[in-house]
Amino acid sequence: MMTSTGSQHVGDGSKVKLSDIARQTGYSLATVSKALNGKGDISQTARQTIDKALKESGYVRRIAPERKQRTIEVVFQDFETIWALEVLRGIIHETKQHDINVMVAESGDRQHPDSAWVEGIIERHPIGAILVFSNLTDGERSTFQSHGIPFVVFDPSGNPALDDLSVQADNWIGGVIATRHLLKLGHKRIGIITGPDEMLCSRARLDGYAAALAERDIPISPELITEGDFTTPGGYEGAMALLEDEQNRPTAIFAGSDLQAMGVYEAARQLKIRIPEDLSVIGFDDIQTAAYMGPALTTVRQPLRDMAATAARMIIDTTEGRQIQKRVILPTSLVMRDSTQRIRKHN
User: Fold this and answer.
1) What is the structure's pLDDT at 16?
2) Fold match between 7-57 and 171-303?
3) Average pLDDT, the chain
4) pLDDT digits (tens, 9 = 90+) for 61-102
5) How far apart are CA 309 and CA 297, in angstroms?
6) For every residue of 267-316, which 3-state class applies, written as one string?
7) How many Å is the maximal CA-CA distance in the chain?
8) According to CATH, what is the number of the domain 171-303?
9) Is residue 324 exposed (0-12), middle (13-18) or buried (19+ Cβ within 10 Å)?
10) Strand ordering across the sheet containing 333-335
11) Which positions make up the signal peptide (predicted)?
12) 41 has a pLDDT exceeding 90
């Protein structure tokens, strides 16, 4: 925002004040100020008269330098899910407390943003970047570092480099919690719809599932494991694969995300399978809509907003020279609702 001073020195050492211009022209001080700052609610005659007097007096308006806006860029593979919106809410909640803008981009895939985004961010020079899932090459890391742009990998798809900043949930414990809950209810044939095999969080949840089964000496059945993609259509396809054979159906399904659990609900509806009477379903994430599904979804909560706020805070602390923990893992917890119940005896 441009602002003008109330007075200005001229070459002979005298000091011209706006009040002098007001007396000279016969206009009020407020009208002179409006003319000086380009306001539109004065007459053209007044503006011309005041401008002429300002010029003749040698008054030169000083412009206060604009404060550069601080921005954090967030890059998603896609921004079409409730999950992504939850992440963005957490980031904005933190940044608005520090008068920092947020710019959102859709770019690349789960492994790496597009090179065009990487090149563009160097020109835009935000105070930092949050990469959802994806990561940078060694060369790009060096470029970011040389330009003073810190970045945080949010829910990394692979193992972050030792020097990378990252934030994620405890996915292995989440997988254990979900499976133990179903086992406690008497379920032994527990299907799981994972996320993509190449993603760290997906593998960790599957490992947690396997560990919980091993605690009960229940062997893993490959036919009860199907790969999804963390989307509702992926959950639907995975559920149909698990449920179509009526004789070998699982009695419970651990969906690797709440969005996939929505797909399980639709598959069960089409197959006339009741939740939770015939099939217990547990999700992962605890997105905002999970509590409003019918029945309300039992799920594992990963604190998405807290994770997102932490990622933003890591960038802010880095730019302000504070020491930070480079890798942050936040706890997961069970949220019990209505989509799971004790197995019925006839099952």
Assistant:
1) 75
2) no
3) 88
4) 555 444 456 999 999 987 878 999 999 999 999 999 999 999
5) 25
6) HHHHCCCCCCCCCEEEEEECCHHHHHCCCCCEEEECCHHHHHHHHHHHHH
7) 102
8) 3.40.50.2300
9) middle
10) 225-227, 190-194, 252-255, 280-285, 298-301, 333-335
11) none
12) no
Q: Quick: pLDDT tens for 235-245.
A: 999 999 999 99
Domain range list for the chain? 7-57, 71-170+304-330, 171-303
Backbone φ/ψ region at 2: left (φ over 0), alpha (ψ -120 to 50), beta:
beta
CATH class of 7-57: mainly alpha
* pLDDT band (50, 70, 90) for residue 170: very high
Amino acid making up residue 24:
Q
Q: Which tokens belong to 227?
A: 């790969």
pLDDT per residue as tens digits for the range 313-336: 999 999 999 999 999 999 999 999
The one-letter amino acid code at 260 reads Q
Tokens standing for 215?
């605690």
Q: At which residue do the structure tokens 């690349």 appear?
A: 108
Is CATH 3.40.50.2300 the classification given to domain 71-170+304-330?
yes
